[in-house]
Amino acid sequence: MVDAAERLRDTGVVGESATQELNYVARWGSPETLDAIARFLTDQYAFESEPTEPREKEASGVVRPESLMITNGVSHGIDLACAQLTKPGDIVVVELPTYFLAADVFRDNGLDVVGVDGLEEGIGPDGLPDGTPGYFDVGALERRLRVDGLRPRLVYLVPTHSNPRGGTLPERDRKRLVELAVEFNFYVLADEVYHLLHWGEEPPPPRIGRSSAARVVSVSSFTKILAPGLRVGWIETARSIVDTISDRGYVNSGGCVAPFAASIVVSAIENGSQARWLQRLRERYRGTSRALHDAASREKASTGWKVASCPPSGGYFLWIELPADCDERGVTRAAEDAGVAFLPGSRCVPGGTLEVPREERSCRLCFAYLDEEKIVEGVKRLAESVRNARGK
């Protein structure tokens, strides 16, 4: 194995730094890879707001290599966490609406998916709606725990610039969620893949993965900030949980799941191209998100749809709620005829969870793929599709 790796290096197929990654690597990743990613994340997370609680301030923003495990991406991290921290028949709570493919991973692991409604609109420090997208309702979860006797093993959410609605959970609610996890003995599975894709004037709250509680498992990935085809992500959690999650048969047998691809990521980190590319993405998405929000806002009067008053400050998505007299299926058909694609909100309500009528007439729009001109044209066509579906 060593000879083969050296021959590949000598022929120029791989560089010196990647040679060891062509051999077996420890199941959580090589020390060099974990060190590089930890340094990169520490630097990038420096834009977070500082925790307000003294105890949380002690849990500094420094990402430690021993708290990380390399994965094949967020979906793989979610699957590993389910496989190692739950058993069939356990309950996983998800926000409604939620990432539309997460429920498949949970059900593949034999888990029962229970939905908890998200807030329709963000709540400011004064306790009043602030015009931002809604997010996970921690208060509703607490009521289900205390009044209904709900006993989940996992609570899954996308806390920052969520998929699908784009909402960001405030620090006070993040702190309360972790407190509930400790009290009621469940794990918070935080999908923080959009946390670094932030361009708002105000920094986002500290990521949930920063918590020192051994009840938090953060999953994230280079998918959205470098290249999805590399299939390199990470889990960040307490070291004891890293040991538990990584103690999986195929991981013990084969070691780290992506050593060579991770070495490419490390090279991009060390030569500065990852940081530069991430900044370019932020600048691009700032423009495309504004274009999408402005175009959607201009059509509010003629369509009757609802859109957050504030443009996105990060992530990938803008959420639109269609008027009550508008059927999502009819809009979808009309939009397809007009050459417009979007994710129907009904896809974001896993089958078997509570029915949420507003999700049956909603659209998730993505601003991460098209340029501003095409986005504006797409909104015009979508608006016309809505008007046609309403007969107006």
From TrEMBL:
Q: Does the keyword Hydrolase apply?
A: no
Matching entries from CDD domains are given as: AAT_like (cd00609)
Q: Name one Pfam family in it.
A: Aminotran_1_2
The UniProt GO MF terms for this protein read: 2-aminoadipate transaminase activity; pyridoxal phosphate binding
InterPro entries linked to this entry: Aminotransferase_I/II_large, PyrdxlP-dep_Trfase, PyrdxlP-dep_Trfase_major, PyrdxlP-dep_Trfase_small
Q: Which UniProt keywords apply?
A: Aminotransferase, Transferase
Occurrences of domain Aminotransferase class I/classII large (ranges): 21-382
Which PANTHER family does its entry note? AMINOTRANSFERASE, LD15494P
- Record protein name field: Aminotransferase
From which source organism is this entry?
Micromonas commoda (strain RCC299 / NOUM17 / CCMP2709) (Picoplanktonic green alga)
Q: What is the phylogenetic placement of the source species in the record? A: Eukaryota, Viridiplantae, Chlorophyta, Mamiellophyceae, Mamiellales
